[in-house]
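seq/struct pair 1
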Amino acid sequence: MFTSIPSATLRQLVKLSQRKEALMAQIQNIDREMVRVQSKFGIPSRNPALRAPVTVSRPQPGRASPGRRAKRGALKEKIVRALRAAGSKGATIQELSGKLGVRTANLYVWFNGTGKNVPGLQKIGTAKYRLR
């Protein structure tokens, strides 16, 4: 295991380890001194039980995790399918966002760019689209 490490490197690691231990001892001495001063003046020490609770954010259901990417054209398929289901009355971006679980900003960008190249896609009002 240590046969492939040069002896100079091992010596350097030993020196660094000893230096680290000395610094750790100094930190412990400083901590003890701080506790002595705090108790002398009646300052309460930090109690780990009184720390603020840690909250964990959970992903919202129906939303894709940020690490995964959808297949190419997946958003287009979802939007076209939803607009077909909406029929001639169409659907607003807000409605599509709720149905598809996609942020409204992403839909605005999609309609402004890719949506212009989709045959049969028609804007019928403010942020409202349908398929002919």
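seq/struct pair 2
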Amino acid sequence: MDKTQAKEIRRHLLAIERSLRKARAAIFELDKEERQKFSEPLGDLEYRLYFDMLGLIYAQHPELRPPPEPPTISSDLRWKDVKLPKSASEADLDAIIFSILTSRQQKAARVIGTAMKHCREHNLPINDEIFGARIEALAESGRIQGFGDLRCWGHSEVKLND
């Protein structure tokens, strides 16, 4: 594929991206049960679009890749300020986090997203900011390794201790 073809395909894929964002906003307005039905398939579509389709274009034409986003803080919530619901404990959160972590570095955002999926599947009322705060606390205590500013989920990584 030449650069002109790649630009044309990318233009159409970015139009799909805008439509998916509108769909996500509309789905967010649904009740919890309906929202859960759409959440995973929509996430799969977004993954395929960003990593498979656009990834193919950027692999062949890296000059078309958008500039990287500057690191932004995803949450300032600190673990000491977290109030867990009665249906979940610190040990529950740790078990979820440790089941996701590996000896390889992973984006904090990915770990949090996977933890949130687990919570949805098990009807645990925990939000992403609570997981972000817990991951930061685990890294500060030396129970896991953190790389970068863990408040910036998309620009930091975590892994199990060696």
